[in-house]
Design a protein that fits this description.
The protein has about 270 residues and is of the alpha/beta class. The protein has one domain: Divalent-metal-dependent TIM barrel enzymes (TIM Barrel, Alpha-Beta Barrel), CATH 3.20.20. About 40% of the residues lie in helices and about 15% in strands. Helix 3 runs parallel beside helix 4. The chain starts with 8 loop residues before the first strand and ends in an 8-residue tail after the last helix.
Length: about 270
């Protein structure tokens, strides 16, 4: 089977080295990546950068800002029996949606659970997520819920909320840590894929290793990615280990990261406008 040569490559803006964000973005672009993504909190660095400036920095670097991952503190409150708890966390997401509109950020990546043993799926949680999705639809923002500690919860939400503004972010490391049927979410819900967090692990912890350094079955993922109608980016969420930071320079590590994607998915093409 020949690799499909149809999708641009991206990598998360943090890849293991403590460097100023503009320098990291420049290195990402020079390595060949077309896009990057951010975490929606102030950047602690040299100097510190407020989150509201980061989107412009990405675009000024020549990279596409694919998505931003929002914090997941108290996200279990989405499913709470308490109206005040649910309203509090939903209102936080609505504020973030307003910020995404203001700073022209297209996709919000979010978790729908925090702890490994999540609350049981319930209508309260669905209603919380429906409110977030409705606000996103009105704002023209996409919501990508990430598979974390319970793949079944993602399955439950996607089955009950049919919206073009709700899809999922596929995390390969989480899939191999927590799911019994590896790749099932891609096979079942690939038509609603909005983004990827690709990384490898040892089956014990979320290591954020490069593809091929752990136990993830990349040939299976290669068969499932990208779905035929996918218009997003194949993106890594990886971070260099202490040994790699000692033995490699940031350009060498990023070059290896790009090479891993190229070997799996073919040569990247430029992101369409």
């Amino acid at each position: 089977m020949e690799p499909r040569q149809c999708t641009p490559f991206g990598i998360f803006s943090w890849f293991g080295w403590v460097l100023p964000l503009p320098e990291r973005l420049d290195l990402i672009r020079k390595a060949g990546f077309a896009s990057t993504s951010l975490w929606w909190e102030d950047e602690i660095g040299f100097p510190a950068i407020g989150k509201v400036a980061m989107a412009d920095l990405v675009r000024a670097s020549g990279l596409h800002l694919e998505n931003v991952h929002v914090p997941y503190d108290r996200v279990d409150d989405l499913w709470s029996e308490s109206n005040s708890c649910r309203n509090g966390i939903v209102n936080q997401y609505l504020l973030w949606i307003d910020e995404f509109v203001h700073y022209n950020i297209p996709i919000m990546v979010m978790h729908i659970m925090d702890h490994f043993y999540p609350p049981l799926p319930n209508e309260r949680g669905l209603e919380s997520i429906r409110r977030i999705v409705a606000a996103a639809q009105q704002a023209g923002i996409m919501i990508a819920i990430e598979n974390t500690g319970d793949i079944g919860l993602i399955d439950y939400v996607l089955a009950h909320i049919e919206s073009k503004h709700l899809g999922f972010c596929y995390d390969s490391s989480h899939d191999w840590l927590y799911s019994t049927d590896k790749g099932m979410i891609l096979n079942k819900w690939g038509h609603r894929l909005l983004s990827t967090h690709l990384a490898d692990n040892d089956g014990e912890l979320d290591r954020h290793w490069l593809p091929g350094e752990g136990i993830v079955d990349w040939q299976l993922i290669r068969r499932l990615l990208p779905p035929d109608d996918y218009s997003g980016t194949i993106s890594l969420e990886v971070a260099a280990s202490q040994t790699q930071r000692h033995n490699l320079t940031p350009p060498q590590y990023l070059g290896a990261a790009y090479g891993k994607l190229a070997s799996l998915f073919g040569k990247s093409k430029a992101r369409p406008d």
